[in-house]
Amino acid sequence: MSTKHHTALGEIPVVPKTPEEWQVSDLLKQYGCGPIPFYGSENAFYERHLVFDRVIDPKVATARERLEAFCHSIRDVLAQRWVLTRNTYNQANPKRIYYLSMEFLIGRSLTNNVTNLLLSPIVQLAAKEKGIDWLDLIEEEPDAGLGNGGLGRLAACFLDSMATMQLPATGYGLRYEYGMFKQSIVNGWQKENPDNWIRSGDTWEVARPTEMVEVQLGCSFRLIGGAFQILRGQPSKLIGIPYDRPVVGYGGKTINTLRLWAAAAPNYFDFQEFGTGDFVGALGETLEAESLTRVLYPDDSTTIGQGLRFIQEYFLVACSLADIVRRFRRLKNDWENFPEKAAIQLNDTHPSLAVAELMRILVDEARLGWDSAWDLTKKTLAYTNHTLLPEALEKWPIELFETLIPRHLEIIYEVNRRLLDEVRVRFPGENERVARMSLVEEGGERKIRMAHLAIVGSHSTNGVAAVHSKLLRTTTVKDFAEMYPERFNNKTNGVTPRRWLLQANPKLASAITDAIGERWITDLSELTGLKPLAGDANARAAFLSAKREAKVQFANWLKTQSGQEVDPDTVFDCQIKRIHEYKRQLLNALRIVVVYNRLRTNPNLEMAPRTFFFAGKAAPAYRLAKLIIKFINNLAATIEGDSEIRRKIRVIFLPEYNVSLAERLIPASDVSNQISTAGYEASGTSNMKFMMNGALTVGTRDGATIEMAEEAGEENVFLFGLTVDQVENSRDWYNPFWHYENEPETRAALDLIFSDHFSHNEPGVFAPLRDTLLTSGDHYMHLADLTSYCLAQDAVGKLYANPAEWAGKAILNIASSGKFSSDRTIAEYNRDIWKAEPCPIP
Question: What are the two backbone dihedrals, phi and then psi, of residue 733, each rounded to the nearest 5 degrees?
């Protein structure tokens, strides 16, 4: 029996493929684990947790209790490797990578940890032996509500890659009790419900109260009349309690840590107030503190919401830097070596306060001179920009700084004074440039520009796709790129193939391994070995079989979960992402209306039947995005009510889009819609997941889709629409009415919508769409791209009619997806920015 295979990482234990070939105890030894006590038979290793942790008879355990027992059993396997990883880092004292992010959209952990530990056959057999449905069991685990979309999912992929590549790394985030919200659909409208994902506890986290930190604030809070009031000039402090989650590298060699901070008050309650009957007042300080990390993305449309979000960002930075510095000093390092021992990556502008906080630590606590402190700060920090949208580049009112962290405002003012002096020397007489580059935005309410602070206070600023990085340098922060050209670079995003192919699509993964071996799991560039097979009949058949199985599995799951039935023999045509005007779900819906009109005119139109899937959440205060969801659902209902048209097209809006849903739908998808207005999508990562699972892309020349087309060849994707330059150059003269007046299908689609055809019972409900598309100038150029989009989709339909040719192009896309592994992205970050060495665990 072979117990190891070879990868770029060296030897990794392999789980034997048949039950007769393994014993649990033998496998555990491969991971360096000591003896683990079992309850009952060796193959019932999870039962001991039911008995000794929950004190219940395994025969009467609930589904949730069985889930917890399985999770704790897997944690038993990884625990000693986790301890060994921590000890190895402490002894070796390597340069460490610290990844600060307000989001980590990690999804479910059980299947991911089982996959990366190579334990799938064991746990599935153990479940089968006890009559437990493994698929039902994993449905019991909630998606961790620690993120919202691509930003958080990217962070999770990066942690996976760093652990797999044996880099000494720690992720830092916040332990939100509630995710963004749970989404349901009522009468077509999005309804937001609380997402208390941690209500039943989290089986993976380990609380570390002995490593808590204190965070100082310049004011206090008081609960009066059911509302919190700010008491200015009365300093207070919060306690940050760390909760650690394991990050399992593939093969189980390295177990890194994601450390999440929860807020608490220094004192539990005011006993004197409690004793006099003021129960709520006595708990006010505790309620205020615990509220800080209660919700991901509080509503920042109010002053109170803005203040909470601001404190969240500072709390993350203050806790994380205190922890980093404490670890650095505990290992007897000198301050001058701080950048040689710590590389801190700021994931977007949210942790930008790290610049001021690190300066405060170095100047006020370490007593270093300003110049030395500033040099260390810049060498330690690096910043990733994720957006070109001005509204997403954070700016915080100076009043918040004055109230909450006045010392940091003093530091920022000094940084700004020195910056502007430098600008005046470099660019004499350019007062407008000075104003543009200032960290302080003047006029109206004065604000601090957080992206400017991050760029000035770091040694690296990177975009996340080639076109995004170019626009960042030439448009968004052009002045800074001219001032510090050496600081700007590109790091195209990537996704982990372990979760998004090996785990999510086992039949396709198995077919790939049978064809080219298993090295692709840790070196996705190996997928190029599939290119010669794109014309092979057997390879094409294997792909079509894997795709068919994924579609059937998704259809069965959907029926079980929601009662909705979909036909796996239709084209699965998908757009799944956050609902936003620039992502243009509305363009997709308009295209469907065009097809609907064609079928009304000619019910016998030759076309492959399609099921159009949408999924994504709209921000609660984003009214137009919520109206787009309403329109998609009304469109779906209208089609559903027409038995003739329903045979050819159907529209399905899947509520509560999350990682687990994506893991099921992406492998089943035939068509991936990546249709943002050119120049607005920084990168995208769902596009990469679709590509490596064999979906063909219909997309604009935007974000990483451009690079995907370069890798696969434009003949193997369906590009359409205006380019970045065309969008920008047509701003002054673009008139959406031209398309309405000169394109018959465009006009017919809009007339149908605005005649209340899709809203008989709610006349006028979609009038704001008319305003968006026509009256207000169609800022995101839906109508400019609609005809081109329809032509691209027509080409998709023609290709799908030839399954062999379709399969060949899909295989070429899979073979060309190697660049979009997060392993490659992390290797580039480390080579160009962090410069840390792998630290193998013995």
Answer: -125, -5
Cβ atoms within 10 Å, residue 741: 11
Q: Is the pLDDT of residue 4 over 50?
A: no
The residue among 20 and 670 whose pLDDT is bigger is 670
Distance (Å, whole) CA 458 – CA 328: 19
Q: How far apart are CA 101 and CA 172, in angstroms?
A: 6
Mean per-residue pLDDT, 624-646:
97
What is the SS3 assignment for 279?
A: helix
Question: Is 566 in contact with 652 (CB distance < 8 Å)?
Answer: yes
CA–CA dist 172, 502 (Å, integer): 27
The label of the residue with tokens 């204190």 reads 214
Higher pLDDT, 5 or 383: 383
What the block records as the tokens of 355 is 């610049």
Following DSSP, what letter does each residue of 680-740 receive, concatenated? --S--SHHHHHHHTTPEEEE-S-TTHHHHHHHH-GGGSEE-S--HHHHHHTTTT--HHHHH
List Cα–Cα distances, 50 to 59, 67, 389, 576, in angstroms: 10, 10, 51, 39
Helix, strand or coil, per DSSP, at residue 217? strand
Q: Which has the closest alpha carbon to 604: 658, 647, 542, 655?
A: 647
- 296-306 burial, b at 16+ Cβ within 10 Å, e below that, comes to bbbebeeeeeb
Q: What token pair was written down for 806?
A: 């379709």
CA–CA distance, 695 with 691 (Å, rounded to integer): 5
Dihedrals phi, psi of 14, to nearest 5 degrees: -110, 135
Structure letter (DSSP) for residue 58: G
Q: Note the maximum CA span of the chain.
A: 82
Which amino acid is residue 842, in one-letter code? P
Please answer whether residues 25 and 35 qualify as being in contact, where contact means their C-beta atoms are separated by less than 8 angstroms: yes
What is the per-residue pLDDT for 131? 81
Residue 223 confidence class, pLDDT cut points 50, 70, 90: low
DSSP letter for 105, please: -
Nearest to 687 by CA among 711, 658, 666: 666
From residue 480, how far is each of 343, 393, 439, 454, 485 by CA, in Å?
A: 22, 15, 12, 11, 8
Torsions phi, psi of 181, nearest 5?
180, 160
The DSSP symbol for 277 reads T
CA 512 to chain centre: 26
Answer whether 395's CB lies under 8 Å from 447's CB.
Answer: yes
Active site residues per annotation? 386, 577-578, 583, 685, 689
What secondary structure letter does DSSP report for 499? I
Model confidence pLDDT, tens digit, residues 26-85: 544 554 444 434 334 444 567 888 888 889 988 888 999 999 998 998 999 899 999 999
Q: Bridge partners of 343?
A: 97
Those residues with Cβ within 8 angstroms of residue 700's Cβ, 6 or more apart along the chain or in another chain: 674, 675, 676, 677, 678, 719, 720, 721, 722, 785
Q: Reduced to 3 states, what is the DSSP secondary structure of residue 547?
A: helix
Q: What is the pTM of this model?
A: 0.93
Location of structure tokens 């899947």: 654
Among the residue ranges 47-51, 375-379, 838-842, the one predicted with the least confidence is 47-51
Q: Which residues contact 809 (CB under 8 A, 6 or more apart)?
A: 534, 696, 716, 799
